[in-house]
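User: I'll paste a sequence; please echo it back and then give the predicted structure.

Assistant: Echoing your sequence first, then the prediction.
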Amino acid sequence: MKDSEKFELNRETWNKKVSVHLESEFYEMSKFTSGESSLHQYEIEALGNISNKDILHLQCHFGQDTLSLARLGARCTGVDFSEEGIKVARQLNETLSLKAQFVCCNVLDTAKFVSEKFDVVFTSYGIIGWLPDLQPWAAMISEKLKPGGFFYIVEFHPIAWMFDYTVSPPLMKYGYHQKEAIYEEYQGTYADKNSKMISREYGWNHSLGEVVTALSEAGLIISYVKEHDASPYDIFPGLVKNNNGMYELDNKMYPLIFEIKAMKNN
């Protein structure tokens, strides 16, 4: 199967996920529409004061984080390949009287659909695993940044994706440097494991070194790489809640989250 066919299957699955996720406790839509931010500690601290900044948010789903950034005074553009997700994002934008823009396209094609350049390119939590090759992704990010701008990613650690979570207990099954696509078919989604929908999707593992190298080869200067035990999301089996309200392995055997910040030269 070609990558384009895998993307299409993933897009169909994400279109189906939108209605499930809107009704889920995971996304807490009533709290969000009442004014609560969907952003978490890592990205809030890393992004800093974004008032009057131009921000490009990649793989935005139905726009909660994009709109949370807009509430902080940023001029935001969200990109996602799910038509259903973008439709909801635009509706939320109008309902909340915000001024974000939303574009429906494959993230790798962003430069074809978005002409502007940005102070910040932002992406978070469960995104690079949908991409077979990070080099065109990193090149697009570099192209969309203004001189002096920065890219920031907060993402689940690649070690966590070495496990097959469709079995219990999870089985370490996939290689850290695995190049072949991983196909999974299961009932429910990460946001609602009891949903009747069947998720069919292809994903790709990317090592931390691969991410850093792709960004560096695209001309960005790495400011930092950080790894963390604690995740804001309770999406992996057997996690325990810590004193800060975040989730981690009880034995802290490996990190669950990494952050990278990278600058574009003036």
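The mean pLDDT is 97. The CA atoms of residues 109 and 140 lie 8 Å apart.
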